[in-house]
Design a protein that fits this description.
Layout lengths: L2 E13 L5 E8 L3 E7 L1 H4 L3 E6 L7 H7 L8 E6 L11 E2 L9 E7 L2 E5 L1 H5 L36 E4 L2 E13 L4 E5 L9 E6 L2
Antiparallel strand pairs: 1-2, 1-12, 2-11, 3-4, 3-6, 4-5, 7-10, 7-12, 8-9, 10-11
């Protein structure tokens, strides 16, 4: 089963035997522990829940849930699978399940940009900045004051930018260091450094 949880370290580049330079994002993917197995018979669907990292101050409900696995994870993530995997609670999942050339999809939380205006958030044009013009050239402009006397949901306006769940597909595994639990993916991975991401193989 090609799934694992990791922490984004940053970007670098590797030089292949043919001299081609490949940009890669390096992730620290320490072994994740299986904390729960869900099946169609008991839960209505097949899934594997993994625990990652070393957490502290866990609630009593979470502590009791992961007690059988013998871990205190910082992050719990569930991955749906088509068939029940040959795993049991307490087993470890590592980067050794991946190999160079595999295609994967990575899900993470994008960088938060804070409160942003429409020029930055939606790539709106600025207003004229010519002789005689008065006012803020980066303002939104009219948002509709006639029928139906409301602002439609989804209207492109200023607001919180970033910090959304983003999934990037068809990234290629370009580097694996099983000894240090590192995996390098060709291309960019969503989120800031030290951000938690999930990696799923597409077999």
């Amino acid at each position: 089963m090609q799934v694992i949880i990791g922490t984004k370290i940053g970007m670098t580049q590797i030089i292949g035997d043919d001299g081609i330079v490949t940009p890669v994002t390096v992730l620290q993917a320490d072994p994740s522990t299986v904390t729960q197995i869900k099946t169609v018979e008991t839960d209505g669907y097949n899934a594997v829940q993994l625990g990652y990292g070393q957490g502290k101050n866990l609630s009593k409900s979470v502590s009791g849930h992961v007690k059988a696995a013998g871990v205190t994870p910082k992050v719990l993530k569930e991955f749906r699978v088509e068939e029940t995997p040959e795993l049991k609670v307490g087993d470890k999942v590592s980067v050794e399940n991946f190999k160079i050339g595999d295609k994967v999809q990575v899900t993470g939380i994008s960088k938060g940009k804070g409160y942003a205006g429409t020029v930055k958030r939606w790539n709106f044009n600025e207003s004229r900045n010519t002789h005689g013009f008065k006012g803020n050239i980066r303002r939104v402009g009219s948002i509709g004051s006639m029928y139906p006397q409301k602002v439609f949901k989804g209207k492109k306006m200023p607001g919180r930018m970033g910090h959304d769940q983003v999934t990037v597909k068809n990234l290629v595994v370009a580097y694996i260091d099983a000894e240090n639990n590192l995996i390098g993916l060709k291309g960019a991975v969503p989120g800031p450094k030290k951000g938690i991401v999930t990696i799923e193989g597409k077999e």
